[in-house]
Amino acid sequence: MVEDTPGIHHVTGIVGDAQPSLDFYADVLGLRLVKRTVNHEDILRHHLYYGNGTGALGSLFTAFPYPGDPPGRVGKPQVAAVGFAVPPGSLDYWASRLEGRGVDPEYRERFDGTVLRFEDPDGTHVELVAGESPLDSWESGPVPAESAIRGIHGVTVLPTNPYATASTLKTLGFDLVGEEPEPAGKDGAEGSAGYSGTRVRYRAPGDAATVVDLLDRDVAYGREGPGTLHHVAVRVGSEAELFEWHDLFRERDYHVSRVRDRIYYRSIYVRGPGGVLFELATEGPGLAVDEPGAPETMGESLVLPDWAEEDREMIESQLPPISPPRVEST
Ligand code: ZN
């Protein structure tokens, strides 16, 4: 028997140049670069992991830089926005921090809470959600602890078929929380009377990174590329369970990948009739597995999967240089 997922493992987006994105997530948002590695499907490209101080599950946001690629377009079926959890009362600090760095945030009221919405340098939709989180922030980061990001709050997905994606979420162990009309916003999605579709909230039973909002909205198809989110991964306890999930989704005629070894976790990718790409990823062995100095030295140097190590010199010469994030306190 498969167990309900406790929540989100990580969220992955596509960015353009690595450096502006790194500066944004590390310097502006104050996340720690916890892993500097390569895209296993394309080893001449970076794969950068951001998280809290220890890179805890539920805090991870990862980026695939595709410098020079034409920008993507947010649409269905995609993960449309990523939300990070920040402490209650910190949103005014964040609004002024973001405005001071050329970002234009917008407040939203949503499910009894307040949210700050903005775009990263590539146009990816990012949100800060005020609320309690059991995760710690990064103590040595540039944002004071009373305001710092604690991890992922959740994601918003735009399915082609909301009922189908709702069914996928229920299968994974998410429960329906409620729904409310979604106000039209700066993203151009206009609707009648200032509303543009319906936001339906699902929550996983864990204690962090548990929210998936399903946006039932009439929008065009998106295009993968910088400025879009690629997938959301949910947590699975063991590799044995991963194989059970693999068989369960295959029996339901979902597109299911074989089990992949991502070094830090094993995973499968699942695309159901709702169209949104979900990954199911094991909780172990974790980010420290190839960094003996973890957590202190995480993210400082390029780590490669063993099978790519013999090509390290070539890979390093091909990857665009990135400078470590400046960490400035304000
Ligand atoms: Zn992933």
Describe what this molecule looks like in 3D.
The protein is built from five helices and 17 strands. It is α+β, with helices and mostly antiparallel strands and 330 residues long. The chain has one domain (8-318): 2,3-Dihydroxybiphenyl 1,2-Dioxygenase, domain 1 (Roll), CATH 3.10.180. The strands form two sheets. Strands 1, 2, 3, 4, 13, 14, 15, 16 and 17 form a nine-stranded mixed beta sheet that branches. Strand 11 and strand 12 (211-216) form a beta hairpin. The longest helix has 13 residues, at 239-251. It is globular and about 50 Å long. The model has no long low-confidence stretch (mean pLDDT 93). Zinc ion is lined by residues 10, 12, 231, 233, 279.
Topology of helices and strands:
Layout: E1 8-15, H1 18-28, E2 32-39, E3 42-51, E4 60-65, E5 78-86, H2 91-99, E6 106-110, E7 113-119, E8 125-130, E9 151-158, H3 162-172, E10 175-183, E11 195-203, E12 211-216, E13 228-236, H4 239-251, E14 255-256, E15 260-261, E16 265-271, E17 277-285, H5 312-318
Bound molecules: zinc ion (ZN).
Residues 10, 12, 231, 233, 279 line the site of zinc ion.
